[in-house]
Amino acid sequence: MAKQSAPQELAGIAPKLVEVTDEVLFGDVWERAGLSPRDRSLVTVSVLAALYRGEQLGHHLRVALENGLSVAELSEAITHLAFYAGWPNAMTAITRLKQIADEQAAA
């Protein structure tokens, strides 16, 4: 699993938020045995796309790829959620996924 943490540059303004993000969200919730990191990534990407949380989506798409999801699987999940979460949300998410896939292909 990709090790995640809150952006440390935020610690100067919100040290407690960074602390609980690292210790509770990424140190406990993401580490629980009930779901694999891959499955947690699929759930997280789906929710972020459905709720139109674009600022966090790019990071979690990259984490999802690192956690073993393929671009094709993420594309299929985004296509599926278009019917439940709305077309604009899905189009935004798939555009972001394409940008990331293109960046990785070029690297």
Automatic annotation (TrEMBL):
| GO MF annotation: an example | 4-carboxymuconolactone decarboxylase activity
- Stretches assigned to the Carboxymuconolactone decarboxylase-like domain: 15-95
Q: What class of enzyme is it?
A: lyase
Superkingdom: Bacteria
Recite the UniProt keywords alphabetically: Lyase
The catalytic activity of this protein is classed by the Enzyme Commission as 4.1.1.44
Q: Which InterPro entries match?
A: 4CMD/NDH-1_regulator, AhpD-like, CMD-like
Keyword set includes Lyase: yes
Family matches, as Gene3D superfamilies: AhpD-like
Does the keyword section mention Lyase?
yes
Which stretches are transmembrane? none
This chain's protein is named 4-carboxymuconolactone decarboxylase
The organism is Streptomyces demainii
